Amino acid sequence: MTTGRELGKTRLPLWAAGFVILTCFAILGLSAWREWETRDADLKNAEIDVANLAHSLIQHADDTFELVDTILVGLVHRLEIDGTGLDTITKLQAYLPTRKSSDRIRGIFVYDATGQWLATTERLDFSKLNNSDRGYFQRHRDSPEMGTLIGAPVKSRAGGQWVVTASRRINDVDGGFAGVALLTIDVSYFVKFYERFDIGPNGSTSLLNDSGIMLARSRDDSGAFVGRDLSNAPLFKGWESRPAAAVYYFKSPLDGVQRLSYYQRSSRYPLMVLASKSRDDVLAPWRQAAAARTTFVLGLVLLIAVIGFYLVRQLVQRQRMAQALVVNEANFRLLAEQSSDMVTRIGLDNRLLYVSPSCVRITGWSSDELLSTSALAGIHADDMERVEQAIAALRNGEAEEARFVYRQRHRDKGEIWAEAALHVTLASDSGEIDGVVAVVRDMTEQKDLQDKLASLATTDGLTGLANRRTFDERLADEWARARRDGTQLSLLLIDVDYFKKFNDHYGHLAGDGCLRALGRILSALTKRPADLAARYGGEEFAVLLPNTGPEGCAEVGDGIRKALHDLAMLHAQSPPSRLVTASVGGATSLPSQTTADCSTLVAAADRALYAAKDNGRDRLVMSGQVVPWPAKSA
User: Beta-carbon neighbour count of residue 244 at 10 Å?
Assistant: First the structure.
């Protein structure tokens, strides 16, 4: 008769197979869900990017047309008061160029009631030109509205380029139509401005009016899209019911690209901007990463399936596996005896119950000498407490394993570095903790290598001073300490004068020697433990002086210059001294809770350094110091 336990053992392989299949499907499902979430996150991030860009572009458009509106209002007001007589027009012709002070404005024009040109900023003969056929002129002539009209883009009669027009009606003293004042903006101005923004290889930014007329579009230097009527595009259908700003996915009617965009309508003018990215560009990094991740997941699932297959087969052959476990136990003991690492078993009283033969190489004592001795013998006093706490935590069941590096006494070599990996052991009958197994290896060579690598990571190889990375870290730390303690922090930036000419004249080996000499001077003058001399970059050095005021900072800076003078290194290309000299800029700050970050101190010292260089070199200038500035030719 088959008992329930035996039946369970019989079905165990089936349950294991079901578990493996369920795990594989769960991994695939979670992976697919994660990829979809990542895709949505990338699209959301892109939506935020184009939304921020649209906000910036509509603000730029509003600012541009606000400037145009202001000029037009003033111009029309002046004409309505002074009239359009010959004297007024003569004065106006001289006055208009003064109003064209911004690169946003292409030209300013004034037309009389018949469309004849009265005045303009353009340099051409306009005596026979007439603009009465323009839509904006006819609109102002037929409508008494006095507001600024932003018209559709037209090709300028003055220059032949595409321009966006903004115009206002001019009335005579009786309120009748007296003419039109017009300002034009080059479409290319907007195109060049939009080129500043990185929106991907297939992205675009567009400026349109509320009627759906394209005013300007990025990457449209030829003007192929200017004036294009997009009022029948889906975006403009139901335009009045749409919000003023929103995310919008569409297929571009201009180039057929599927786009992710954000449109923003102006609250002041009949304008809107459309910032868009190609959806393929946005999702390209995700697709590439998703392909790699999917490949990994499929490989993992395949690996789990293969492992599961072998696991099920192992369960079917459990008797053979039991015998294999016995063999494995014997093999483990053999490995422990032959391993280069020292394997020990530690009892609850911290006594060594077993020690592998590798103990001679690790500690210098044989296994017979170490058996029954304390496992803590020979550990450095500074590491003892940490090791005792780790072993106590294992014995008390607070942790199952531990790993740490410590110093260990060797019989012949003195002190070495060792790494121990500890794991608790359980009694086979009760399941209670009965000791700890420790695997110990000699880490001395690796520790020395790590120390050397750490030194290389923080030191400049040429001068032996701290490198830029170390300087940045120390500057942040000292800034925080000065803010906390309410003390002053000073910084010197030192730049070797005409160093490129020195290299060109004497060679790079001599240049390296020059930098090393300056490095030795800096090392000698930064005597306090907290002071730091560093190579800031190229021929530029920095000295950080914590708890130092401007007087002390200036004293150290002058000392550096004088010490460099005392070396008397020849530099034929450095007038007038013909010696190697240095320009020094210094700055002192008293950080507080309201003070900006430490970059302000670097910026102040950098400005002082450039003042020293611009004022003749070979001098020290402190931040805030008034120095005579050399005149520069226009």
Answer: 11
Tokens at 413, concatenated: 């070599």
Strand order across the 620-622 sheet = 532-537, 540-546, 489-496, 582-589, 620-622
Provide the 10 A C-beta neighbour count for residue 624. Answer: 12
Contacts of 625 (CB under 8 A, 6+ apart): 608, 611
Could you give the CA distance from residue 510 to residue 504 in angstroms, rounded to a whole number?
A: 10
- Taking the C-alpha atoms of residue 308 and residue 13, their distance in angstroms, rounded to an integer, is 10
Closest CA to 531 of 542, 520, 539: 542
Say if strands 620-622 and 582-589 run parallel, antiparallel, or are unpaired: parallel
The answer to whether the CB of 588 falls within 8 A of the CB of 548 is yes
State the distance between the two ends of the chain, measured CA to CA, in whole angstroms. Answer: 110
Give the pLDDT confidence score for residue 1 in this predicted structure: 46
Query: What integer pLDDT is reported at residue 453 of this predicted model?
Result: 65
For residues 137 and 141, give the distance between their C-alpha atoms in angstroms, rounded to a whole number.
Answer: 6
Which residue is listed with tokens 């903790």?
433
Read off the pLDDT of each residue in 291-310 and give the average, rounded to a whole number: 88
The continuous run of DSSP H or E covering 54 comes out as helix 4-82
CA distance 177 to 192: 37
277 neighbors 260 (Cβ within 8 angstroms): yes
In degrees, rounded to 5, the angle at the alpha carbon of residue 439 between the alpha carbons of residues 434 and 445 is: 155
User: Do residues 489 and 530 lie in contact, with contact meaning Cβ atoms separated by under 8 Å?
Assistant: no
Averaged pLDDT for residues 582-597: 83
DSSP 246-280: EEEEEE-TTT--EEEEEEEE-SSSSEEEEEEEEHH
Pairing between strand 414-426 and 433-442?
antiparallel
Residue 435's identity, in one-letter code, is G
Position 320 scores a pLDDT of 55
Asked if 540 contacts 530 with a C-beta cutoff of 8 angstroms, the reply is: no
CB-based burial of residue 274 (10 Å sphere; 0-12 exposed, 13-18 middle, 19+ buried)?
Answer: buried
CA distance 612 to 192: 38
Q: Between the CA atoms of 545, 549, 550 and 556, what dihedral angle is there, to the nearest 10 degrees?
A: -40
Find all residues with CB under 8 Å of 530, minimum gap 6, and list them.
478, 546, 547
Kindly state the tokens that stand for 367.
């296994």
Res. 499: pLDDT tops 50: yes
- Length of the chain in terms of residues written: 634
Helix (H) or strand (E) holding 588: strand 582-589
Which one-letter amino acid corresponds to residue 407?
A: R
pLDDT of residue 363: 77
- CA-closest candidate to residue 515, choices 459, 463, 468, 471: 463
Query: Can you say how many angstroms the Cα of residue 627 is from the centroid of all Cα atoms in its chain?
Result: 37
Q: Is the pTM of this model over 0.85?
A: no
3-state secondary structure of 300: helix
Long-range pairs of 551-554 with CB within 8 A, sequence gap ≥ 24: 552/490, 553/490, 553/491, 553/492, 553/586, 553/587, 553/588, 553/622, 554/586, 554/620, 554/622
Mean pLDDT score across all residues of the chain: 83
In tens, the pLDDT along 349-388 reads: 878 888 877 777 777 777 777 788 887 787 888 878 888 8
Encoded tokens for 82: 């002074």
Task: Show the tokens assigned to 549.
Answer: 């005021």
> How far is Cα 48 from Cα 247, in angstroms, rounded to an integer?
9
